[in-house]
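User: Modeling request: complex.
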Amino acid sequence: MADKIEIRISGLGGQGVVLAGQVLGKAAVYSGKNAVQTQSYGAEARGSAAKSEVIISDGKIGFPMVRKCDILIAMSPEAVEKNVKALKEGGLLLIDSTTVKSVPKIKARIFKLPATGISEKVFGERLYANIIMLGALIRMTDMINEKALEKAIRDTVPEKAVAINIQAYKKGEDIVGQILS
Amino acid sequence: MKLLQPNKYFWQGNEACVEGAITAGCRFFAGYPITPASEISEHMAKQLPRISGIAIQMEDEMASVGAIIGASWAGAKAMTATSGPGFSLMQEFIGYAFMTETPCVIVDVQRTGPSTGQATKCGQGDVMQSRWGTHGDYSAIVLSPNSVQEMFTLTVRAFNLAEKYRTPVILLSDETITHMREQITVPPLDSVKIINRKKPRAGETAFFGSEETAPMPAVDEGFNVAVTGSTHDEYGTRFTADPVVHRKLVESLNNKIRNHTEEISDFEDCNIEDCQISIISYGCTSRAVYEAVEKAEAKGVKTGYVRLKTIWPFPEKIIRKLAEKADKIIVPELNLGQIYYEVERASKGLAKVIPLNKIGGGELITPEELLAKILKEAEKND
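Assistant: Request completed. Predicted assembly structure:
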């Protein structure tokens, strides 16, 4: 892993982008790294643009905001449009292809995953798409280990939702694994 | 009762504030939720009842300060938390807390103003309000954390200073620092220094208006004490027209803080003995400074910084010393210029003081913007 990696998770309020960032940051710390997680959302509880940023580093982290990201997770068409210019050339764009139909033409590794569709199909609800995306991200990078992610989920989501969220990240991992193999 | 275990955690700033308060001995919280301080209310409501403390959601912010003043006189360490619009409402009772010498902690998590402004976006526009928000002559103690770790340690310190000087202490934070999640190290609790208010001995009767900070009885301890916002003598007796009593009281309220400015002052510095350009910053804005200074140094510009952890009382001597060394001082702030004027005043013309301001949308001043300013000022010969 590079000594500093910057991730932006973007979507709409209600899609769990802040929670996903929180879990990711916590998992990084549990993996022995430094991490800072910040978030930005509108005054409305749901439906307005929301983003969560995580910086993971081996060293001290000064400025907490992401200016250019190595990885962009986009969960709505607006999120792609607004954030794609912040992605570094050659970076990784992870798209929820259930909600995002048009893929931008950019110099990046682009990976499409119908996370919202999978969430609906497997769990009967859309709301696990965020953790499915995280599972995919973990499988595609070597930033943090699985155990740390699992512990981060346990420490973050309500007890009754732990099992299903763990299933969700495993689902994300599996699908990426199948595609990559 | 389950005590907080010394360990490394990944906490939000607001959460660290609550844990710091509880570590300092806070057992009473009264507040009214407001973005970006709501998580403090939420977390207090979750944590305090577990340790036999009390957390109340009040009808508004005025009542919140009223409740913590009452709790403090009942002997508890007490706190409230709000953001700009609520902080404006609190000013009346904050004045009452100053006048009655009531130790308490008020957290103001700054967002953009005036008025409702942008509720979820970061700002630093309440700096002067934190010093001069209520009417009359008084001296405020205002602390400014710049990390989740300091949301813990400076909250502990806020309580210690409130108890030591029997005064309200403002923890002036901002949306970035309180909503951010970061690694924090909680030390063994018995290693954390805790200060408790001085209690009177049996038979003592003077509880107000001492530059040495008078002892404070609690209700139900058998002391006969009147607590009033009107001018009073050391026994609490009202004197609503006497000039001498008023002068003595109000001067003591100011001097008990001002005489200890150096002890209260806390700051972080780097390269200040040998720099052409220096940066003075506080809170979220200071997070851009480290990278900017490093890059400026790499480009051959001697750059240093002072980062204020206490904003008020203003550390004039440190600024003056800095102005003697540096040619120029840049003051980045997420407002249209507040501490800038204080720095200019304290520099006494010895260095050129330059503001760098940005407001709105929660955008921070970036290291690139600060670096560009440093390089531009280093090139200019004025």
